[in-house]
Design a protein that fits this description.
Order of helices and strands: HHHHHHHHH
Radius of gyration: 17 Å
CATH topology of the largest domain: Protocatechuate 4,5-dioxygenase, Chain A
Structural class: mainly alpha
CATH architecture of the largest domain: Orthogonal Bundle
Oligomer: single chain
Mean pLDDT: 86
Number of helices: 9
Number of domains: 2
């Protein structure tokens, strides 16, 4: 599929998946659960009983394992939408730099240094 254009005619970016209707269906339970974290009472309920909370939303084993591992890349692969996953990450005080570091496989300090270096480039 890497060499087939997407529905809009663009070639895919290696290592990414478009969030389309297939991914939306795949990640529905996970994303619905993460959306619930908009309310503090739901965040507290999750922290109090993660397994029970995941069961309440019907997460499959791939999704539940990714939640247990706190692994954003696994959550994305399990159908997670980045906007909803940010709600999950916030429970554990993870910010976008933590997530970016995880996605690129480097430490948070290394990721931050790359951001600073990119910002200090002339012509940007």
């Amino acid at each position: 599929m890497a060499d087939k254009p997407h529905f809009d005619g663009h070639l895919p970016i290696p290592g990414t998946e478009p969030f389309d209707d297939t991914w939306a269906r795949k990640g529905y339970a996970l994303n619905k659960m993460c959306f619930s974290f908009n309310d503090a009472v739901n965040r507290d309920a999750f922290v109090a009983d993660e397994e029970g909370y995941m069961a309440k939303y019907g997460l499959n084993e791939e999704q539940a394992a990714a939640i247990r591992a706190r692994n954003v890349l696994q959550l994305l692969a399990a159908g997670g939408n980045a906007y909803y996953l940010a709600k999950f990450a916030g429970i554990f005080k993870l910010d976008m730099q933590d997530i970016g570091a995880q996605q690129t496989g480097v430490s948070k300090d290394t990721f931050k240094a790359k951001l600073v270096a990119a910002n200090n480039q002339p012509g940007l």
